[in-house]
Amino acid sequence: MAGPRLKERIITNTQKLPPEIREYLEKVRVPISVANLTDDMALVFANDAFCHLTGYSRDEIVGRDLSPAYSSSLR
Fold it and tell me: Cα–Cα–Cα angle for 37, 41, 42, nearest 5°?
């Protein structure tokens, strides 16, 4: 059986973003929340911004099933 597939999208080059988004991000310098989930909605990675946004430490949230937090239409 193959390992879990991760749903992941990380923006590493802001030059690929539309100009109005780049301009906004440069003005506000908002930290981007990043989390990686398996197909069955288990969290396998969360960056500092995701932890801050949710109020959980990385140790508390990684490995948890996040499916209750998401609408079934997003799965």
Answer: 70
Distance CA 22, CA 41 (A): 30
pTM here is 0.53
Write out the two tokens for 45.
Answer: 């990675």
Which class for 56: exposed (0-12), middle (13-18), buried (19 or more C-beta within 10 A)?
middle
- The sheet with strand 6-7 has its strands ordered as 6-7, 35-38, 43-46
Contact in structure between 66 and 42 (CB atoms under 8 Å) = yes
Could you report the per-residue pLDDT of 23-63, keeping only the tens digit for each?
876 777 667 788 888 888 889 988 888 888 889 999 999 99
